[in-house]
Amino acid sequence: MDPTRIAFEGGGTGRPLVLLHGLGDRRQSWSAVVPRLTEDYRVFCVDLPGFGRTPAPPPGEPYDVFTMTEAVEAFCRLHQLENPHLAGNSLGGSIALELGARGLAGSVTVFSPAGFSGDLGRWGLRTVGTFANLAARVPMPLKERLASTPPARALARTVLRGDPSSPEAKATRFSVRGLQEGAPFIRMIPHIAEYDFEAGPIDCPVTIAWGDRDRTLLPSSAEHAHRRVPGARMVSLLGSGHIPMADDPISVAEHIKWTCRAADLGHRRAVRSASRPH
Fold first, then answer.
1. Cα–Cα distances in Å, from 28 out to 16, 99, 123?
2. How far apart are CA 62 and CA 83, in angstroms?
3. Which stretches are transmembrane (predicted)?
4. How many domains are contained in the chain?
5. CATH assignment at residue 57
6. Residues 77-110: pLDDT tens digits?
7. What's the CA gap between 44 and 46, in Å, rounded?
8. In 111, 209, 258, 266, which residue has its Cα 20 to 30 A from 237's Cα atom?
9. Residue 36 belongs to what domain range?
């Protein structure tokens, strides 16, 4: 995947901070969070390959969590982002953790990362994949009409938002544009269902946060994350669903800044120690 074709928006000053969205989403999912970060950090908000304005690799080429990770690593090299802070949601969280395990992150903050599901969660993801493949065969005009019906919109609010009855959740609906044969979402979902994070310890500050109302990747997955990422700071986001950037952008921004500051403090100490005469 060509890193020069990865679309992104940037702003702010300071150490670089890269924000990675979830499966089927795009960089705009961070819109309510970014203004709370740019005073302290140089923020890069990217569209992952296949989503937003970034093209997917051609059919037949490898396309999974690991190739996505390599694409983001190449993006960071291209823009000379050395050990950037990383934050990600869902698929983006998995990529951030993989990069952290490779020693390529200054800090890692993730929200409901994929790769820690138990049997029930894995079954749910496989079921989503099955329905997505079936939906791909339905004509697009019919899909659009079905997605706009009250039952479908209610289901979208329930699945994606922490409080489905909130005024902010009213506009939530499933995007069906990605439900076409060979589309990036269709290609990726089987890999997400079978993916496990097994990379081991991460030598930088890590925060793993989970919405207590996440109905996509169940909060019980946090127990697996706690065991597989020793030393990570574990956080429960009360009232948030699978996309906490929409439910509680203030808390999301504060947890990102907390993790970044923990890394920055350690970095400054290391620089001071290295500069002292021995």
1. 18, 22, 29
2. 26
3. none
4. 1
5. 3.40.50.1820
6. 999 999 999 999 999 999 999 999 999 999 999 9
7. 6
8. 266
9. 3-275
